[in-house]
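Escalation from tier 1.

The customer reports that the assembly of two entities below gives different structure tokens on two consecutive runs. Tier 1 could not reproduce it. I'm attaching the input and our single run for tier 2 to review.
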Amino acid sequence: METAAIQTHGLTRRFGAVTAVDDVTLSVTRGQFFGFLGPNGAGKSTTIKMLTGLLEPTAGKIEILGRPFGAGALELKRQIGVVPEGMALFGRLTASEYLRFVGRMYGLDRETASRRTEELLDFMQLANERKKLVTDFSHGMQKKLALAAAVIHGPKVLFLDEPFEGVDAVAAGMLKTMLAGMLNRGTTVFLTTHVLEIVERLCSHVAIVSGGRLVANGPIEELREGVVSTLPDTAREQRLTLEEIFLAIVGADGGQEKPQELSWLA
Amino acid sequence: MAGVDATGANGVAEDSSWSGPLGARALAQCAALATLRWRILKNGLRSAEGVFELGARSIALLFAFAVLGLGLGALMGFAAYSQVSHAEWVYLPILFWLVFFLWQVVPVFLASFQEQFDMSALLRFPIDFGLFFLLYVVFGLTDVATILGGMCCFGLWVGIALARPELVGWTALAVGGFALFNILMARAVFAWIDRWLAQRRTREILGAVCMAALLSLQLLNPALNPRKRPAPVNVARQAERERKMAVEFGPWLKTANEMQKWSPPGLAAVAPRWFADQSPVAAFGALGALGLYVLAAGVVLGVRLRAEYRGENLGYAPGRREIAQPETGWQLGGSGLIAAAIEKELRALSRTLPLLYALGAPLLLVLIFSGSFLRATSRGHIFPLALPLSLVYAQLGFTQFFYNNLGVEGGGIQMLFLSPAPIRTVILAKNLFHALLYALMLLVAGILATLRLGLPDGTMAAATVAWLSFSLPCNLAAGNVVSLMLPYRMNPGRMMRQRGSRANALLGLLAQTIVLGVGATVFALCLHSHRLWLAVPIFLALAGAAFYALASVLCKIDGIANRRRDLLIATLAKKE
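Tier 1 run:
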């Protein structure tokens, strides 16, 4: 049997008295487009940081491509690409210098890194901005560059933390095409985003975290059936969107009590 | 309207008495800012690093106040008292000029080490421009140069007032105006330099101008003083030379003296004198002119701050749209990780003016101090330790390279942890790059010192090189550890408004002092026993031990970095 691309067992991270991620166990099979959802502060970015070696778990195990993963697992790091929360850019390099540097850090030879850099800049429509410093890029352009850096070495597993945030509709369409292409080539994609429409269109499986705990995990259809089964008979005919499923699972209040209205805006 | 108070329906003040730089709203905002600073300080104490940082700040502040400030202030006071009590008013402007240079030049040298509050963070709030201006000036009052300059001014005032008690009020006006001018001027210079550094083109031009100026100054001094070694003093010949110089430069000095009277230091110095000479019209004129200088400095600062207040974003400099062309820039040979990392370091350095400046500025000190070594002895010999001391000054520029070697990575630090390259490789590449730079810069400093002082004694040169080969690995080893333990984010686009770390600076200073102390002890013992050659094998043996220590640190660097990665990412990748 083929091993999972990503496997966690009891993954936990505590910051002092606060448990940001609590006993998360999940499995992502190879070639799957996996959506990792949750309200703000649910622990999505913390989970991605642990899965990519940016943060030490307090407890639990991580396996990537069937092998134990940690900060020192350098060979495994070569197999993964990441767009982290902070984008991991060097502001004082130009776009092409940055991509070449990242390529070489992932072990590409100079010629290959240069060739792929040119292709990526063209693809991401950043070719006209190649001489601009990254620090002078707009937020959306920085996102595109971060995504280009994440795929330059042809990773087998791709972790994307909010890749569509701040990206315009044209670029988002282009990125979706690229991700679909990578999926066809067998790449596993682990995505967190608040744009549920994208998850619904691209992902086959989703997991939902709330308050650091995994509250749902499985194919979208399975989650939909699960939610529909809790509805009254009269409401079972409607087809629920992912947003409705998400709200039904985490609660419209995101798992937190909230006041009904703001006193000065009422 | 009856029943309506100063706050409107949504709780925001609508009464006009709330507005203005000193209105109730401004005062409330000041109180909120003071609370913010207090909270930041208090919350910073939650971590051991925060406690250490506060301790380091307290020591630095105490040192600036108690040792440097009081010392300089007392010195100025004594000098002013001595001159005024002997009615030697003509030399008083020299003291004011010294304070002026201290106030304007020291911040530039310390620019990269000082923490400044980033005022642009306040622009999202409804802050009045007057208050914005005021806060910008007030936040600058805590920097070292202002503390030192302020205490010097206080010393001058006390000195003059003790010598001539009837001038206490007028002197306070003159010295106060002079201090205000310096405060505004220093802040204006900071603000404008930051503006120029915000755009890539002007940043590169300014960087090139700075480097060219430094090199020119280095070459200017030997050109003006071509004699390499001072000849033994011949009293008659020296008197004749001085007489010729007086004839040659006398008129020039007289003109310069007349002109300086119209400058802020000159005006501040002549105003009390004219009051003492019972010339109130001239004295009031001098005070008025000083007031105009204060106004001008305020306007220069105001123009810059007004643009920032209107939302000018220094971080964004729109560039010309360029047609896509294949990359034609240089690339470092080799495909290895170390070559890639060194290439990145080189590219980033060429665009990071604070670091370029930190490298270049100490060369200026070499220029100044090597001149003083020439005059260090009247018997025509150069001070024996002139060469190593000159190189020690040049080495100061590497403090940030060695002791905060991840500081300019910013968000890129995440990439270093994500990539399959061990952090050890990245740090090793940085160490190699810095060692190369160190060798190059010290070679330049050595050549310049030799041009200025003449060829050094062979044994002394060998001992100096041996000491440098001990100093380099020591600093690299200590710097690697300090960089991982107490990192701080550097903004490469800003020279002045940096967020520094006193704790990092203190540890760096401590490590450098130990290295210098060992060097000085060995030199002193060997010179004392007339066996300077012995310093060479001693330093080489120490260098061997230091290289072993560096190798040990590098072996453990991955473990340290991985344990500290949360802090490193949080500190270096955070948005300002």
